[in-house]
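Q: I'm writing up a methods section and want to include an example of the input and output format. Could you take the sequence below and give the corresponding predicted structure tokens, formatted cleanly so I can copy it straight into the document?
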Amino acid sequence: MCPAGCSHVNGFKVDNWKQNLRVIYQCFVWTGTAETRRRKQQAETGRSSQIPESRSTSALGPVDGGPNRYSVLNLPTAAKSCICHMCGAHLNRLHSCLYCVFFGCFSKKHIHEHAKTKRHNLAIDLLYGGIYCFVCQDYIYDKDMEQIAKEEQKKAWKLQGVGEKFSTWEPTKRELELLRHNPKRRKITSNCTIGLRGLINLGNTCFMNCIVQALTHTPLLRDFFLSDRHKCEMQANSCLVCEMSQLFQEFYSGHRSPHIPFRLLHLVWTHARHLAGYEQQDAHEFLIAALDVLHRHCKDDDNGKKANNPNHCNCIIDQIFTGGLQSDVTCQVCHGVSTTIDPFWDISLDLPGSSTPFWPLSPGGDSAVVNGEGHGTGSTTLTDCLRRFTRPEHLGSSAKIKCGGCHSYQESTKQLTMKKLPIVACFHLKRFEHSAKLRRKITTYVSFPLELDMTPFMASSKENRVNGQYQQSVDVLNNDNKYSLFAVVNHQGTLESGHYTSFIRQHKDQWFKCDDAIITKASIKDVLDSEGYLLFYHKQFLEYE
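A: Here is the clean output for your methods example:
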């Protein structure tokens, strides 16, 4: 479904808005360069001095008036004001308010200050003619406004003697009919592979390549980097966010040859020195290090917005990856509960076969079901791992806490639940076990679903738990906590010698295997039958504030 577009345009489309918009395009946009406007302004200022004061003032009206302030009568006065009303400059990306006769610099935020003070949401770029919405914080497209801009541009070209040299091609009705019935025309379908690109292995850097593939296919992260939202204040060639921006440009440029991420590797070595060198590293460790550096380098991109969670900022990394983990410690004597909430970027899950005691699986427990086909009873599922993660755990006599109710040290139980879910949930299956006596890889198969509902593991769902078993909520229509799988990172081989690959979802039902520089088509079965090390899920529904 196509987006509805900017809804704030309707506030401008009243009375004679079309004529007013034409006047602006005629006199201030398509009249030439900024220097031409400066000369025009000087000439118009001389003429306006001959206009009686009463006529000039009444035609102009108050500066903070409604959308009908532009007219043929007030052009000389408006031309006289065709400079930034705050600093007097002719350059600095001059914009004109669509609701009143006000001109302000975009670069110095003078037009922004006016929009915020007067609540005038729309302005027009006097250099290119684009319409900017201060609520959407972006240039917008409106079919009616675009048509007016094209018509006035053609008129201006004819007056300047340009003619049809630079005119754009618009198909006629006959041509549209031919295009519609031409069997050889190419239709863009879901088979499009824009954004898929291999990465050269620079010497045991498969751990980095598989994470880069997952990040470049994270929808909101892609939208951020491709829309040039980052404002860098670091020294040249030292910002990881700038390098990621360039990487996204490379991935979505349409080039098919493998990319060589040498600058990215250098910056990772610079800012995460524990990953420096050509030894094989852990993909999970690289993910956390990369998110940490990106978080530190893009803190100034939040435009001063206050974060919803006091434990983290409002940068793009925290907006996408940060969730809130609630820890409830219950005193076994007075049953008083102490609650803390900590931010997290990923959830590490214990597996059967590890030295950590695993929660016994219930007979006939949940198993991942995809298209009506399960992976068989008795197999461990991602849901089983999450159940163990969120079950109450008795801390024992060796880990007594000082209870605020009893005012003494008492035994207690601890339970973890999800207070706030991130947009992207990353699950780390703890396959590498390191201890004083043991170093090994756990190869236990864990089935994981394409669609995941996190409702049973929310803090709000604790009251629905009885003896560790989740009782299904009657509100089955709640979709806020539902996720879709979009990336899987796998490790093949042993702890000492192995190789990382990843599966990436390009479209709803299209998956690709990324093995460094080689990308091949994969089936859903290939994905779900894989061992699984890092699982990336994206929220199906997003809430906009």
